Amino acid sequence: MDEEIHFARIIIKEKTPETDKIFDKDFIEVIYKAKSYWAIFKCPCGCGSLISLTLQNTHKPYWNLKTSIEKRPTLSPSIWRNNGCFSHFWIKDGMIIWCGNSGIEPWIAEPEYYKSPI
Fold first, then answer.
1. pTM
2. Phi, psi for 58 (deg, rounded to 5)
3. Among residues 26, 60, 59, which one has the least CA distance to residue 43?
4. Stretch (H or E) spanning 109
5. pLDDT-based confidence at 1, cuts 50/70/90?
6. Which of 45, 42, 32, 36 is nearest to 102 (CA)?
7. Is 80 exceeded by the pLDDT of residue 82?
8. Which of 16, 23, 77, 80 could form a disulfide with 88 if both were Cys (CB 3.0 to 4.6 A apart)?
9. How confident is the model at residue 48 (pLDDT cuts 50, 70, 90)?
10. By C-alpha distance, which of 14, 9, 44, 13 is closest to 27?
11. What CA–CA distance (Å, rounded) separates 118 from 32?
Protein backbone atom coordinates (compact mmCIF):
# COMPACT_ATOMS: atom_id res chain seq x y z
CA MET A 1 0.00 0.00 0.00
CA ASP A 2 1.43 3.38 -0.99
CA GLU A 3 1.65 5.99 1.72
CA GLU A 4 -0.34 9.17 1.18
CA ILE A 5 1.27 12.61 1.48
CA HIS A 6 -0.32 14.25 4.50
CA PHE A 7 1.78 17.43 4.64
CA ALA A 8 2.35 18.63 1.06
CA ARG A 9 4.67 21.46 2.08
CA ILE A 10 6.11 23.39 4.98
CA ILE A 11 4.48 26.76 5.64
CA ILE A 12 6.96 29.27 7.06
CA LYS A 13 5.73 31.85 9.58
CA GLU A 14 7.61 34.44 11.65
CA LYS A 15 5.31 33.98 14.64
CA THR A 16 2.92 31.34 15.87
CA PRO A 17 -0.42 31.71 14.09
CA GLU A 18 -3.70 31.73 15.96
CA THR A 19 -5.12 28.24 16.44
CA ASP A 20 -8.16 28.89 14.22
CA LYS A 21 -5.77 29.74 11.35
CA ILE A 22 -4.13 26.29 11.42
CA PHE A 23 -5.88 23.70 9.25
CA ASP A 24 -5.81 19.89 9.21
CA LYS A 25 -2.96 19.33 6.77
CA ASP A 26 -0.94 22.47 7.50
CA PHE A 27 2.62 21.96 8.70
CA ILE A 28 4.00 25.23 10.04
CA GLU A 29 7.60 26.01 10.86
CA VAL A 30 8.06 29.13 12.95
CA ILE A 31 11.30 30.84 11.96
CA TYR A 32 12.29 34.15 13.52
CA LYS A 33 15.49 36.02 12.62
CA ALA A 34 16.72 32.99 10.63
CA LYS A 35 16.29 30.61 13.59
CA SER A 36 13.82 27.69 13.68
CA TYR A 37 11.70 27.67 16.81
CA TRP A 38 8.60 25.48 16.41
CA ALA A 39 6.89 22.87 14.26
CA ILE A 40 3.11 23.21 14.58
CA PHE A 41 0.39 21.01 13.08
CA LYS A 42 -2.85 19.26 13.94
CA CYS A 43 -2.70 15.65 15.05
CA PRO A 44 -3.02 13.48 11.94
CA CYS A 45 -5.38 11.04 13.68
CA GLY A 46 -8.20 13.55 13.18
CA CYS A 47 -8.79 14.34 16.87
CA GLY A 48 -8.19 18.03 16.11
CA SER A 49 -5.54 18.57 18.79
CA LEU A 50 -2.80 21.03 17.99
CA ILE A 51 0.75 19.69 18.29
CA SER A 52 3.58 22.14 18.90
CA LEU A 53 7.12 20.75 18.96
CA THR A 54 10.26 22.69 19.77
CA LEU A 55 13.02 22.72 17.16
CA GLN A 56 15.45 24.40 19.57
CA ASN A 57 18.23 22.16 20.82
CA THR A 58 18.37 24.16 24.05
CA HIS A 59 15.06 22.50 25.05
CA LYS A 60 14.55 18.87 26.00
CA PRO A 61 13.12 17.05 24.22
CA TYR A 62 13.49 18.71 20.84
CA TRP A 63 12.88 17.60 17.26
CA ASN A 64 14.97 17.85 14.11
CA LEU A 65 13.21 19.08 10.99
CA LYS A 66 14.49 18.33 7.51
CA THR A 67 12.95 19.68 4.32
CA SER A 68 12.80 17.54 1.19
CA ILE A 69 13.43 18.85 -2.33
CA GLU A 70 9.62 18.99 -2.67
CA LYS A 71 9.49 21.18 0.51
CA ARG A 72 7.85 18.41 2.59
CA PRO A 73 8.73 17.83 6.27
CA THR A 74 10.59 14.99 7.94
CA LEU A 75 10.73 15.11 11.74
CA SER A 76 12.75 13.05 14.15
CA PRO A 77 12.36 11.53 16.61
CA SER A 78 8.83 10.15 16.46
CA ILE A 79 5.88 12.01 17.99
CA TRP A 80 4.00 10.22 20.78
CA ARG A 81 1.22 12.19 22.40
CA ASN A 82 1.17 11.64 26.16
CA ASN A 83 -2.47 12.69 26.53
CA GLY A 84 -5.68 12.75 24.50
CA CYS A 85 -5.51 10.26 21.62
CA PHE A 86 -1.98 8.92 22.47
CA SER A 87 -1.11 8.85 18.76
CA HIS A 88 2.42 7.66 17.98
CA PHE A 89 3.82 8.33 14.53
CA TRP A 90 6.73 9.50 12.38
CA ILE A 91 6.59 12.23 9.74
CA LYS A 92 8.75 11.27 6.76
CA ASP A 93 8.71 13.31 3.56
CA GLY A 94 5.24 14.61 4.41
CA MET A 95 3.82 11.13 5.05
CA ILE A 96 2.50 9.82 8.36
CA ILE A 97 4.04 6.51 9.40
CA TRP A 98 1.98 5.08 12.26
CA CYS A 99 3.67 3.10 15.02
CA GLY A 100 2.14 -0.17 16.18
CA ASN A 101 1.66 1.15 19.72
CA SER A 102 -0.26 4.24 18.62
CA GLY A 103 -3.28 4.92 20.81
CA ILE A 104 -1.69 3.34 23.90
CA GLU A 105 -0.35 5.39 26.79
CA PRO A 106 3.47 5.49 26.55
CA TRP A 107 3.92 4.38 30.19
CA ILE A 108 1.76 1.29 29.51
CA ALA A 109 3.23 0.42 26.10
CA GLU A 110 6.86 1.01 27.15
CA PRO A 111 7.10 1.30 30.95
CA GLU A 112 10.87 0.83 30.85
CA TYR A 113 11.18 4.23 29.11
CA TYR A 114 8.17 6.26 30.25
CA LYS A 115 6.70 7.02 33.68
CA SER A 116 3.02 7.63 34.35
CA PRO A 117 2.27 11.32 34.87
CA ILE A 118 0.08 10.39 37.88
1. 0.92
2. -85, -10
3. 26
4. helix 106-109
5. very low
6. 45
7. yes
8. 80
9. very high
10. 9
11. 36
